[in-house]
TrEMBL record:
The lineage of its organism: Eukaryota, Metazoa, Chordata, Craniata, Vertebrata. SUPFAM superfamilies: Cadherin-like. Potential calcium-dependent cell-adhesion protein. May be involved in the establishment and maintenance of specific neuronal connections in the brain. The keyword NAD does not apply. This is Cadherin domain-containing protein. CDD domains: Cadherin_repeat (cd11304). It comes from Macaca mulatta. The keyword Disulfide bond does not apply. GO terms for molecular function: calcium ion binding. Residues 134-242, 243-347, 348-451, 452-527, 523-626 form the Cadherin domain. It comes from the Eukaryota. SMART domains: CA.
Amino acid sequence: MEARVVRAVQRRQVLFLCVFLGMSLAGAEPLRYFVAEETERGTFLTNLAKDLGLGVGELRARGTRIVSDQNLPFLLLNPLTADLILNEKLDREELCGPREPCVLPFQLLLEKPFQIFRAELRVRDINDHSPVFLDREISLKILESTTPGAAFLLESAQDSDVGTNSLSNYTISPNAYFHINVHDSGEGNIYPELVLNQVLDREEIPEFSLTLTALDGGSPPRSGTALVRILVLDINDNAPDFLQSLYQVQVPENSPVGSIVVSVSARDLDTGSNGEIAYAFSYATEIILKTFQINPTSGSLHLKAELDYEAIQTYTLTIQAKDGGGLSGKCTVVVEVTDINDNRPELLLSSLTSPIAENSSETVVAVFRIRDRDSGNNGKTACSIQDDLPFILKPSVENFYTLVTEKPLDRERNTEYNITITVTDLGTPRLKTEHNITVLVSDVNDNAPAFTQTSYTLFVRENNSPALHIGSVSATDRDSGSNAQVTYSLLPPQDPHLPLSSLVSINADNGHLFALRSLDYEALQAFEFRVPRAAEPGYLVTKVVAVDGDSGQNAWLSYQLLKATEPGLFGVWAHNGEVRTARLLSERDAAKHRLVVLVKDNGEPPRSATATLHVLLVDGFSQPYLPLPEAVPVQSLTVYLVVALASVSSLFLLSVLLFVAVRLCRRSRAASVGRCSVPEGPFPGHLVDVSHTGTLSQSYQYEVCLTGGSRTNEFKFLKPIIPNLLPQSTGREVEENRPFQNNLGF
């Protein structure tokens, strides 16, 4: 008991060490890898085995995989070489838009033991986009009274590239009246202003057509152009002026399309068309134009598309107010999108182990990760399972959890468990997600067979027929499959004088009990025996008995197995003639076996005799039938003996032979009543034949039934049948009417 406690503590210490190491590595700086956008698919990035200080085989054996929040298969891990390979061509502008740097985080998950490494792939921008003006022609109206140095806001170009490849400068075609000033908006964007160099004269030059060029910082640089058409007007000396230069507003992400975000207002002191103001976006990005629209008359800003806090949190808009005389003013609108609890938690299952062997110590059943796209309390989650289950949840790093067994499982109590993992966020209202897991419990041979009764009492009438079915025993096993298969056999009797093996036998498969011979109430009123689950080699099959009329060492007999159909299956003990099994029977063994047993004395010269045993393996006794073997004629002893006997009294011999023939005929009729049979039909005629080939004075025949099952067999000898009697003995006799002693051994 103390050893098991120590081992359990050691296993917990190893588990805590693995979790601590995994959390330590996960909390360190992430592994960083860089790749230029538009790099071809299949490009080698790094070798993870070298980066992690692990062998390639160890990395593969630990079940390494790549997981990411984006669920984009942009990386591929080669399990044979541990090379990290680019799985697809990346477009930085599609993945990150204007955000710089463009970082694609992912995790390296090692399952055996559990460990996580944070990593990120940074996508470098290349100069693959040229600056583009949304309007290819820009129209301006400038009063001729405009003072030199006045600046006029122009539409800015759009460049999807970032960094040095983004928009960097504007130029205008050479002229004497205008030049370009480039201004930074403070948010990484630049915009052009057209500056007047000298006083205009509408009568001299009523209109200008200039080319505005936008340049990026790439090498070589890319450019885009727009035509600036300038119309010189009469005097309009007041430009529109906004009441606020900056508008800030917060909008919930679930605001309906068409709702008003904010209303801006500007005023113009001029009258007539010079005082009429029209509102419009100034150098707006494509995203802003898709999301918002402004009423040109009222200045109210409306939603054109749904907002998504998880995608964009802040929009910055520049709104221009232009009067009828062409003068304009501008203001800035900052729209902050507020989060609502509109995303249910997600459970991402990484691995699941089923079935789980019963009686196993703490075992990891599942590894999963929780993700909620909301922010703040809306993105915080709690994870739980049912209280009445032998499982617990263990949190790990990066919102990973492991589902482990809390105690050893018992298949006999529950063969499977339906586990519901409930994930709830802390937002208002609270949203939850449920994930069902079915865990099967596999069987371990942890239950011994049990009999349906502790004892059985069987009643048999005396003088019963041999191989009579006298009853059955039954045992069950709570395990399943092969662990629940029960095999029956008999244990050696506690009373060494009880010849149990010659009294009863048992069917190894179904527990049926059979009486092997006719019982005599006056000789045996009751006896006890036990049944084990399996029998061992060495069980007694039968016993060959021979006698020698000599005395002293001339009467010392020894037995040996002279011939056998399958050597190694049976053996004969030299001193007592017991025939025993040398090993367990199997289905590959032949059904019929012929054994020749030799017995010889210790005289000079030694004299011997042989007995032939025919053994048949059957599947069990069910109304057994054994036909009486045909009589084998007695060989003539010697010519001298026959002549001597005939000379003494031929009449007397003839009378004796007639008397014996009558007796044998009667015995044959009586024995036919108790013949032994098996379900498949009669056995061959000579099952056990002990032929007089040596110095024994008689020939004997024996009836044998032997069962060959999975582990045990049933064997039966009836009393020998003497086909003929001689009037005289030659000095060597065999015990007449004594059956071979037998036993059930397999």
